[in-house]
Amino acid sequence: MPIAITAANEVSPDVDVVAAPVFSDLNMSGGDLDVGYCRERGFSGKAGETLVTRGANGTTGVVLGLGDPAKLTGEVLRLAAAGFVRAAWRNRAGVFTLPDLRGSVSPFEAAKAVAEGALLAGHIFDPYKASSEPCELESLFVRAPGVDEGVLAAGVQRGSTVARGVLLARDLVNEPAGAMTPRRLAEVATQVATEAGLGVEVWDEVRIGAECLGGLAGVAAGSDEPARLIRLSYEPGGAGPNVPKVALVGKGITFDSGGLSLKSAEGMMTMKTDMSGAAAVLGAMSVLRDLEVGVRVIGIMPTTENMPGGRATKPGDVLTTRNGKTIEVLNTDAEGRLVLADGLALAVEASPAAIVDLATLTGACVAALGRRIAGVMGNNDELIAQVGAAAERSGEKTWPLPLPAEYRKQVDSEIADMKNIGEPGQAGALVAGLILAEFVGDVPWAHLDIAGPARSYEDDGYLHKGGTGFGVRTLIELLSTFEPVG
Ligand code: BES
Ligand code: ZN
Ligand code: ZN
Asked: Are 232 and 199 in contact (CB under 8 A)?
């Protein structure tokens, strides 16, 4: 069970663990922190530090560093709440008193961040373990004396809902590829859509062929598992005709073996993660109604395995995509751009005000930005800025990368409109982005390469080893504040 988080300025008497968030001056409001005790144990109040102590009346105390008060952000509180839940793993009921926010973060944002950090840290993926040690914390009270409880409650509720979307994405990614096949993903999406008040349509392999999704069909050709094209739609309540529509497209490769351009054993160990873009789209869309998001949204998830079977697409083969453009496949491991070509072309047909795609697209993006930061590219600087700002507010890290027109010739093909790879070792993330750009027409478009941050290799803060659900928070924030761009 997820931790039940409630806003309550009255502390329940059966609380058995108490959070004491403090800035680096160790000057706690309320003031019963034993500063000498903390310092002796090497606790200096730096952001991210935790120190477990004995609290009053047999409770456990968890001192949480918040760092410099001038640098307080929602992310600092999210990490503090995560540190608290990790320290309180075996307790039952906790209380987290917000620090003096000194105007840098609103009480609503603070309560939201604490709920997110606590719920994300408290969830582990354990259905395949005979013995697991799930978080035993049943309830968490968030309080801030002097702050309207209604404001706190609204923040807690929003944070809890956002976390639910992130955790759905994580769980989908963490399922083994043998279980989370394209057919299973389509089933889950259908079920989630029904519960979340979304429209849903699933195209099977026959329809995929009939609809000329040659990129998706070409990638699926080497697999015994049939591909699916999943399409979700969200209509806000009482929306008039002028409400803008945003299209989300997510790469849904449930397993990327590389195809005939087979990956190494090492390289494919984590490739069940290659559906993280699709999982982020589904995770975000699953909570749009509960968050009362005011724009129309469609979600397109081309999903397939990439396998080297006897009918697999061969290096040198040419695929014809949904918009008629042809791609010469010279490396079958560069398959994400092939399925996204069709997904983006379908998105364009819906005449959206903007398209945002998410994909674990290139190892080159991991080389450039590492495992914590997603690359953002696109054809519209205003939209790219909006996505970047939404990511920043949500606590997800992104960085803009260019799409230089002079690199387009890297993908000129001898026999087709383009080939699917550029020069080895040169700007692989940008070349992939330039290929995607061929399929969005004039629609404002932003592309998030999440190959790095989609998976975590450590238990750290509110992340656990495995899928991170990266992108869900950015998408929710973007859709909640979306402004059409020129
Ligand atoms: N799914 C991979 C990208 C990836 C790599 C994601 C590492 C996460 C971690 C993608 O399909 C791929 O294999 N891309 C190739 C492209 C290359 C052949 C041009 C890559 O990045 O090596
Ligand atoms: Zn690949
Ligand atoms: Zn891939």
From this structure: yes
> Is the pTM above the cut of 0.85?
yes
Output the DSSP codes for 370-396: TTSEEEEEES-HHHHHHHHHHHHHHT-
Distance 40 CA to ligand 2 centre (A): 51
pLDDT (0 to 100) of residue 241? 84
Enumerate long-range contacts of 404-412, CB under 8 Å, 24 or more apart.
404/430, 404/434, 407/431, 407/434, 408/434, 410/434, 411/435
Torsion of CA 358, 362, 368, 373, to 10 degrees: 30
pLDDT for the residue 81: 98
Closest CA to 299 of 326, 313, 281, 311: 281
Give the mean model confidence (pLDDT) for residues 155-178: 98
Asked if 403 and 434 count as a contact pair (C-beta separation under 8 A), the reply is yes
The protein residue whose alpha carbon is closest to atom 5 in ligand 1 is 363
Q: Of how many residues is the chain composed?
A: 486
Residues 341, 325 contacting (CB under 8 angstroms): yes
Question: What are the start-end ranges of the H helices in 45-196?
Answer: 74-87, 107-122, 149-174, 182-196
| 351 residue type, one letter | S
Report residues whose beta carbon is within 6 angstroms of any ligand 1 atom. Answer: 256, 274, 331, 333-336, 360-364, 366, 421, 428, 451
Burial of 204 from C-beta contacts in 10 A (0-12 / 13-18 / 19+): middle
Nearest residue to 259 (alpha-carbon basis) of 227, 213, 223: 223
CA nearest to 302, candidates 421, 434, 186: 186
The percent of residues above 70 in pLDDT, for the chain, comes to 99
3-state secondary structure of 153: helix
Q: Which ligand lies nearest the alpha carbon of 361?
A: 1
Helix residue spans in 252-307 (DSSP H): 276-285
Instruction: Report the pLDDT value the prediction gives residue 179, as an integer from 0 to 100.
Output: 98
SS3 call for 97: strand
User: Which one-letter DSSP state was computed for residue 11?
Assistant: P
Four-point Cα dihedral 142, 148, 151, 155, nearest 10: -10
* 237: amino acid identity, one letter: G
Contact 453/373 with Cβ under 8 angstroms?
yes
Q: 10 Å Cβ neighbour count for 16?
A: 17
Q: How far apart are CA 66 and CA 421, in angstroms?
A: 45
CA pair distance 479, 486, nearest whole angstrom: 17
Instruction: Give me the active site residues, please.
Output: 263, 337
Report residue 355: phi and psi, to 5°.
-120, 135
Those residues whose C-beta lies under 8 Å from the C-beta of residue 417, and which sit 6 or more positions away, are: 325, 326, 327, 438
At 45-78, the pLDDT tens digits run 999 999 999 887 889 999 999 999 999 999 999 9
